[in-house]
Amino acid sequence: MEYLVGAGLGLAVGVMATFVGFDRGRAFYPVVLIVVASYHDLFAVMGGSLPALGFETLGLAAFWGVAVLGFRTNLWWIVAALAAHGVLDLFHARLVDNPGVPSWWPAFCLTYDLTAAAWLARRLLRTRRVATPGHGVLAAALAAGALFGTAASAAPAAVEADGHAVAYQVQGQGRPVLVLISGLGDGMASFREVAPDLAAHATVILYDRAGYGGSGAPTGPRDAAAVDRELQALLAASGVAGPYVLAGHSIGGLYAEYIAAHHPDEVAGLILEESRPAGFTRRCQAAGLSMCVATPAMMTFAPKGAQAEVAALDASVAQVEALVPVVGKPVLVLSRAPGAKPFDRLWTQAQSDLAGRYRGAVHRTAPAGGHYVHRDQRAWFVAQVTGFLAAVP
Question: Where is each AB hydrolase-1 domain found (predicted)?
Fold first, then answer.
């Protein structure tokens, strides 16, 4: 019975997380790993054994470290750790004398952990995400071996750009060429669900900026100018000729504005999805609102690329405000449904003002959903983008 309950509950949690959208964020399964690993400390307290508590805390610290590593680098580490934790439970009693562990726990935990690991592995494989070179590939091999008896992982596609490796994917073919630039804290996996739909109408390029996913760590300030150098080197090395339609989400839109203004001959159009306007932080703070910008403290456990981009945000804003916006190019602004809160009202107005920055820009508002329009309103987003691409000269 314990095996059935563990497998059933693991599957139910995985299905629910995917259906509701909990696992769209990178933190969900690392948190699951930490919670599962912490139960042995609870059992040690219930059993009143301080020696067991000490040993179990050491084990928890190890899994905690892997959870942080997986969150910040590659989620295949989490797959491997969940599978390893389940198998470890079969031998746990031989390693630690913990009187508080229920007799049914090893069987239950084994099947729950393996089911959770298998569900996460399924999710990662479906994204066709580029694996992180080195330890990411090792984690994938360990997880696959533990779960499926194989040790295969996808080979990364990467080029050297601006002093570090940049992971990327090219989907589809033909013209135009659409370059997707993700938001703060997100790599190319942010677009995993919409990329195949878009690739039916254009060549689509997805990539991880420095410090995200399969790309190398940032080696210097990560302002808009650095993002521009990185993307220019990637495009040149990819062999996919322009001109390009740049589609930026959130801070990716800020970068797209900079790149378009500096390379007008290489840009055929501009799509700004929930883009962060250059002057938004100043307007937000002037309105006396909170949470106007992510602080370095808030980004402690974020990918290194996100930390570096937040640290250089003021520089990026100044760079975009100082430039003359690209002219003579079609521009599409996509924003979320208006909200009633003061922050939401200011954001909605800022999106309208952003569209007004570009003569002839088209501004469309999603019928529902939040900041991730391409996830919350996938069909609507694809329809808007493909319609825009069809009209690009």
Answer: 176-283
